[in-house]
Amino acid sequence: MVLLPVLPSMGTLHVDAPSAPHSLVKSRSVVDIRELLNGDKPALLLFYDEGEDGILGEVADVLGQDWTVARSRWEATREPLQTIVGVCASDIGTDWYPRDLSRTLISFRCVEGRRSPSHGPIGEFCDYEYLYSRAPFYRRDLARFLSFILGQTNPHRDLAKKSRTTLISTTYPDVHAALPNLEILSVGADAVELRVDLLKERLPDGTHSKLPSLEYVGEQLMLLRQRTELPIIYTTRCTNENGKFPMDDPNLFYQYLNQAIKWGCEYIDVELWLPEDIRRTLSNRKGSTKIISAFHDFSKTFRWTSPEAHELFKRGAVYGDVVKMIALVSTEQENYELEYFRSIIQQQYSHPPFSGLNMGRAGQLSRAHNKIFTPITHPLLPIIAAPGQLSAAEINQARHAIGEMPRLDFYGIGSYRSTVQAMFIEKCFNELSLPHHFLSIERAARDSVEDIIRRRNFGGAYINPPLPASAPYLRHLSDAARAIGQIDTIVVKNGNLEQAFVGENATWKGIRATLSRDFVPSAYSNRAALLLSNAESDAAAAIFALKSLGIGPIYTIGFKASGPLSSGVSAVRGVEDLKQLEHPFAIISALPADKSLGVVPLLRHYSGSGRQPGFTAGKVFVDLANGPRKGDPMAVASSLGWRTFGAADVSAWTTVERMRLLVGQNVPYDFVRLASGRGLD
Ligand SMILES: O=C1C[C@@](O)(C(=O)O)C[C@@H](O)[C@@H]1O
């Protein structure tokens, strides 16, 4: 049953039922880390184009698993399930039918040069299809695709934690035109909508086809995903609902939407008028993809007060993970009717979340009120996707004008480096037309953090260096801040009766996002990690991040862990110990900049693992050091084949998390990197 009635104690919307298949809560001794998802090593069978066997090594590396090539089904079945098996398209024969059910089947197709011939009927029964370009190859996109389809990331669950979400509707006939501005376009957006029906494929005779081919759509989607980390909403809007997708054959919708599931789109938009068996089949096949049930009415006669409106919601909720209902209106009164409808729906159903809007100028107020996936436009887009659409900045202005977003003061408290952060945050406030002020404060003895949070209009703060979690005036702490023992962000939560100041830690999320940029989370599970630091406190956020990825033993050099995170963490006592250790998959250095070269001998020592092709050697090195340093351990690590990240990467991901915590706005990583020049370190 999809509709969950609200229990008396449930005030909020829960997008995922508590028993979502992949979300595990693993308890590790004292510390509960709630971010763990499915960490099992997947069993995969990959079909690849002739001459493209290099992709196998990439996939295996991203997954941290070994791989082999099989020429026949018999050869494939002899391999352990944890070994990734690749089969070249030219070796696909009848022995592969019926399909192998013990492994997930993915067809890998390179879009370059010759258009690779399809993988024949085998392509049809593959669970997924991954389209990639060789030059350049985007490993981050591969990691994201695999993490998503394998249930190791759950963007829908992450978005459900936000109090408001938006989507940017791209209206380009060809995504290439969006790419130069994508970072700016997506500021304030939580997801990017690809309007497949608006794509225009040029035919050899210079005209455009009525419907873009799946091949064209696949390449457009690939281009978009290579350039944004935001979840994709794949929409085939029909001609009756202000789109261009022809309605004469509903099976065409099935074909295009089913393919979107195979391409690993995070969301598909499924129109409610489609025959029930199509909607049901898509729901049964959706895997990690979520369904947005969509209903649009342009008749101007639709009434939110009618019994029909309620029925439509219920019908949408049968297969929808989100139910979207949108009507073209001509009076402002209809916004109040919609708000009444929204409140009834929210009282009666805790799931699925409802996204309700009015189109047209008269309906614009509803775009300020809606909280779930409010569509936004941007002045740089060629056309607006629907009458009355507003930009993120316009919506924020409207929310301020109607009293929903009071002007608040946010603070950066701490060291001189904060000024770069401060400039960046001001830039975001401007870009998004947020009414807030940002103030930088050097922490002085007299001006304690406690005084600052008591100031009128205090909206939140980030603190660098972090505060100890024992600060008596911050009674509420997130689990992460408590376990790490450090508060780097203070968030104000407004309850019905009182305000609470919550101590948060955003740094561990920045480290985790960095670690999972080029590897799926399960690549870390049960592997060893080595952590170098002068003090446990400098390494605590990294330990938490590693544990959230289910890493195996953590070895430390330079300190001995004794805090709440110390289980499974052991100090290396000397060179003899080092020889005995399992080779680390990840090395993180939290040494100060002037000492950071100390890691180089270890990088060298653990590089010569002498592994053979077919065995993954993927390793990751993160240097958390800031400031001028002697030598460049990152360059050394890179030259030795480590995936290498520095403080600027961690800092940019931490900023993404911090902006979400402080002002509830999504500012994508690429924008942070673009807008902050060399980085925020
Ligand atoms: O469903 C919607 C909402 C929308 O129609 C709007 O009103 O902003 C814009 C469409 O692109 C999107 O698919």
TrEMBL record:
Coiled coil: none
InterPro entries found in the cross-reference section: Aldolase_TIM (IPR013785), Aminoacid_DH-like_N_sf (IPR046346), DHquinase_I (IPR001381), MurA_subfamily (IPR050068)
Family annotation (SUPFAM superfamilies): Aldolase, Aminoacid dehydrogenase-like, N-terminal domain
Gene3D superfamilies per the UniProt record, alphabetical: Aldolase class I, Leucine Dehydrogenase, chain A, domain 1, NAD(P)-binding Rossmann-like Domain
Name under which the protein is recorded: Aldolase
A GO MF label: 3-dehydroquinate dehydratase activity
Entries under Pfam families matching the protein: DHquinase_I
